[in-house]
Amino acid sequence: MKQVTVVGSGVMGKGIAYACAISGFKVYLNDLNDEILGKAKTAIDHLLDGSFEKGFLKEEAYTNAKENLHYEANLEEAAKDSDLVIEAVLEKIDLKIAIFKKLDEICPEDTILATNTSTMSPTEIGAQTSRPEKVVAMHFFNPVHKMKLIEVIRGLETSDETVSYVKQVSEEMSKQAVEVNEFPGFVTSRMNCLIGNEAMNMLMEGVASAEDIDKAMKLGLNHPMGPLELSDLVGLDTRLRNMEYLYETLGEKYRPCPLLVKYVKAGRLGKKSGSGFYEYT
């Protein structure tokens, strides 16, 4: 593989573009307009500069990554020559399907189309294209430049060749892939959402403070980050959308905590908004 397009320059899209660029791939990052992409470029450059200054990136990798990154608001220009397109937009199935329909028309017939969804169906998305065998989910984790795992989720029609291809790409990005057969929530999101939702219920019930719930999980169960800290990092609006989807598809045990619903209505979305279960400056 030589060229990757990442659609969506939010937290995950920026991270995926960065990870692909430092791995030697030519990368096009696409979003709605140049203003959004300008902010994404500033953030990625800041991460690249910091990684180089701290010694995490050698000079050659740093220089190549800067040269490899391109920012393009026109989806056709961004995706027409790519070997792999990774969609990283909001967890809204209608939005994802609309993007994949466009990509199906734009991209060469051998281009792999991947969605960075944490819960949604690559089968449903792939069925809206003429190439369901080349549609797959690649679930990256936040922060992408630090997290080593990629869940590779096989849809009903996804071919063995496609799965093998994205596993190889994962290795070239210094990630480890696990193969998952499609089922709502896959592996990590099902577990993560349950743990996080129960932590929110305990906070709402007054069992313990947010700080002590997170400390108990980190020191008692050896989690690297507490479930409430992690929810703030992911974004409470994103977590709510995931919970609503899992509640719809898997039933009562995934009913979103009322406190989560209240926080999202209040605009307390976590780290990105400055407040969630914690306050951020």
Task: Give a concise summary.
The protein is α/β, with parallel strands linked by helices and 281 residues long. The protein has helices at 11-22, 34-53, 59-68, 75-79, 93-106, 122-126, 160-172, 188-205, 210-220, 227-234, 236-250, 258-265; strands at residues 3-7, 26-30, 69-72, 84-87, 112-115, 135-139, 149-154, 176-181.
Question: How would you describe the overall organization of this protein?
Answer:
The chain is an alpha/beta fold and 281 residues long. It has helices at residues 11-22, 34-53, 59-68, 75-79, 93-106, 122-126, 160-172, 188-205, 210-220, 227-234, 236-250, 258-265, and strands at 3-7, 26-30, 69-72, 84-87, 112-115, 135-139, 149-154, 176-181. The protein is built from twelve helices and eight strands. An eight-stranded mixed sheet has the order 3-2-1-4-5-6-7-8, with helices on both faces. Helix 2 packs antiparallel against helix 3 and helix 8 (188-205) packs across helix 11 (236-250). The longest helix is centred in the N-terminal third of the chain and has 20 residues, at 34-53. Pfam families: 3HCDH, 3HCDH_N. Pathway: Lipid metabolism; butanoate metabolism.
Name its key features.
12 helices, Rossmann fold, 14% strand, globular, N-(1-d-carboxylethyl)-l-norvaline Dehydrogenase, domain 2, 281 residues, alpha/beta, single chain, 2 domains
